[in-house]
Amino acid sequence: MTAQDFDVLPSAYNAFEEAFKQGIKVAIVHLNNQDWNWSHRDRGILVSKALDHRARNEAVAHCIAHFDLSSSRKGQEALKWVGWRGRLEMDIHSMVAGRMISLPALSDAISLSEDFVDVAACLGVSEFLLSWRLQYLTDDEIGELPVHALNRLQWGPSHDTVVPTGCGWPPPGTGDMYLQIAKHQL
Ligand SMILES: [Zn+2]
Q1: CA 178, CA 157: separation in Å to the nearest integer?
Q2: Rounded to the nearest whole angstrom, what is the distance from the C-alpha of residue 153 to the centroid of ligand 1?
Q3: Residues 6 or more apart from 30 whose CB is under 8 A from it?
Q4: How close is the Cα of 123 to the center of ligand 1, in Å?
Q5: Which residues crowd ion ligand 1, with CB under 5 Å?
Q6: Residue ranges of the domains in the chain?
Q7: Average pLDDT over residues 70-87
Q8: pLDDT band of 13, cuts 50, 70, 90
């Protein structure tokens, strides 16, 4: 079977819907050097037109997590460059992986296919995010999954994957993104 044979599970996380519920504005625009751009003060997100639907959904989920962490001590320090932004990005990958790949959904997906690419397609996430989720599964979480299906995947932490690098942090000011979004809002 190929990725096309799998529909995304009905329970898959819809980040656009979540953004709408939270009053976060999203616009799909042409971006030069970044995959997405977020501004917690504007509660706005710009997503690159170059991304496909699945990547756009994941980008919005990523930005929502930035908003969730922007008022935390770690989030504030990272915004001011006195905290390590890389660490915050790692925290965000873990949050997004947990939100987009619930244990029941992961259990269903790995039971449906032994092919890593198909499992990611079924969950509606990138291979990067699925790798991240698998790498940081706790022992308790592993205990809730069908272990024969996990082993069948033949996944290991050295799995070759493309790490997203185009996260655009906001400049110190506010308002610029609001104006851009007003022109392009969905
Ligand atoms: Zn980010």
Answers
A1: 40
A2: 28
A3: 48, 49
A4: 21
A5: 89, 167
A6: 3-184
A7: 93
A8: confident
